[in-house]
Amino acid sequence: MCGIVGYLGKQQAAPILLDGLSKLEYRGYDSAGICVFAENRFCVEKTKGRLSALSELTEVGTTLPGTMGIGHTRWATHGAPSQINSHPHVSTNGKICVVHNGIIENYQSLKSYLMEQGKTFVSETDTEVAANLLELYYEEEGDLLQAAFRARETLVGSYALGILCIDQPDSILAMKKESPLIFGFGEGENFIASDAPAILKYTRKVVYLNNGDMVRFTKDSAVFYNALGEECVREPELITWEMTAAEKGGYPHFMLKEIHEQPKALRDTLHPRMKDGQVCLEGLTLTEDYLRNIRRIYIVACGSAYYVGCVGKYILEKTCRIPVEPVLASEFRYCEPVLGDDTLVIIISQSGETADTLAALRESRSLGARTLAIVNVVGSAISKEADDVIYTWAGPEIAVATTKAYSTQLSVLYLIALYMGKLLGTWVGEAYEQMYRALTQLPEAMEQMLTCDCLKHIEDHAEALCRKHDVFFIGRNTDSATCLEGSLKLKEIAYVHSEAYAAGELKHGPISLIEQDTLVIALATMEALFEKTLSNMEEVKARGAHVLAVTTEETAGKLKKAADRVILVPRTHPLLQPSLSVIPLQIFSYYVALKRGCDVDKPRNLAKSVTVE
Ligand code: F6R
């Protein structure tokens, strides 16, 4: 949700800023801008549209001199995407220039106040308020750092801010509250960025700033300040993953690459934690006594991560015999959840920065529940604030639509199910061993589904069906939860209206929408419930639907005339089946999007990391 980058060193800043922004475009891509400090003035270039437009405008940054600058790629919140609303924003008297990720919640009252003080505004953004507030305080204090400390007290909301001051040609100031911000140490050059890929080409040594932190840096030094305004030490961490992990590596799209990376991501997430028949969740501070006393589990997340929770409900209830309730993070805080010290709240988030999910985590902790976060990004806000963290080792996920993060999140829930089931004595003996064995083999099973032939087969279905405009996904049990994710994928990247229903629910209303040739994608991978889903397929078929069935080889023979098309998935342990069933749905959406000419990696109106409520 907006990406920011800053550079101060010996090299020309603009090309480095543009390069950094190109790695952050997943955070927002409706407009982009940069400001460099050169010849004692701010040179700002910004434009509506993709980063490529800015790159063209500045001849890949070469037309802008200067060795210090800040850049921004935007996902509009306040004010439509336009040149005027694009960042960076310069204050009224031209003293301050800022890029911002987040939302200033009290911007309206501040704007009125600042206008009374003679400040003027040209954009509709909340960010311009931050620029003018800093300028006002700077004029009053005569010192940028003091001005920033004061601004921090005044600004309500979330921000990662990169700040240039016209009187400070050798330093950049950056501050963070809620929105992500990292600082990168280089040799004779230093960086700030919303996320590591933006600066990984130049340095691996980074500090993930804490909430309330500020850093003032030159090309050779950096001074950190904590939330109390005290100078403090922030130890750098080394990023261990390779830059190639954040590049397309020969694939036409990140999404396709990430679909293919799923077996590896699963291996990395599962195998180090599975040894000699035991699940080892290293570093977990949850005691056995605590786990034995849990009476209820909430799984709280947004979007696809929430759908992982919907699958997780079936898995954990079956293995642990504890009631599990998946709740949307955006609703959680407002539904007065019944929490206490016998409640475990599992928080799921790829980015670890999603505003609603972070708020739900804080709410849970304040109400006395234990929190266990499943997170992909090391150093993210959720990973820092949860009582316990289990990382999904999916590597950087760049495509806006999640695939490998979804799969690894689900795999962590399997680990938790095995771990807790054994501990509680509810999932032991043969039941435990069969599931454990199948889980170790899951990455190979997934690999079988990613061969060229399998992809081609699904692409052919996509080619034939890509012009359908209303699609229904139906399934039972975990299949119904997987349908939710399949339907979201189709909506978000292919812009096809689709709905997901528990198969038995259709005849209670939605079946009236089925007409000649309506596409129904029926997931029937649960052997025990196959006949039931088959009946539901026949019901829609009888009303003219075109049915694409996703099932296993073992049951495909029973489909007879209930399906017009079939996609086969390998059979695995019933509780793990959702991990395989979702794969063809990801691939199908990918190809439908492609055939419809959509921008697969950067779907309209979306951003990868949703740091606003
Ligand atoms: C859909 C998708 C989103 C995210 C959701 C939560 O493909 O990616 O629905 O799952 O925005 O994001 P995280 O997991 O970063 O909290």
In short, what is this structure?
This protein is α/β, with parallel strands linked by helices and 613 residues long. The chain has 19 helices and 27 strands.
Keywords:
36% helix; binds fructose -6-phosphate; 3 domains; 613 residues; Rossmann fold; Glutamine Phosphoribosylpyrophosphate, subunit 1, domain 1; 7-stranded antiparallel beta sheet
Describe this structure as you would to a colleague.
- An eight-stranded antiparallel beta sheet has the order 3-2-4-1-10-9-11-15, covered by helices on one side.
- Helix 3 (107-116) crosses helix 4 (127-141), helix 4 packs across helix 5 and helix 9 (303-320) runs parallel beside helix 13.
- The chain is globular and about 80 Å long.
- It has three domains: 3-240, Glutamine Phosphoribosylpyrophosphate, subunit 1, domain 1 (4-Layer Sandwich), CATH 3.60.20.10; 247-449, Rossmann fold, CATH 3.40.50.10490; 453-595, Rossmann fold (3-Layer(aba) Sandwich), CATH 3.40.50.
- The relative contact order is 0.09.
- Strand 5 and strand 6 (96-104) form a beta hairpin.
- It has 613 residues and is an alpha/beta fold.
- It binds fructose -6-phosphate.
- The site of fructose -6-phosphate (F6R) has 15 residues, from helix 9 and helix 16.
- Fructose -6-phosphate binds next to helix 9 and helix 16.
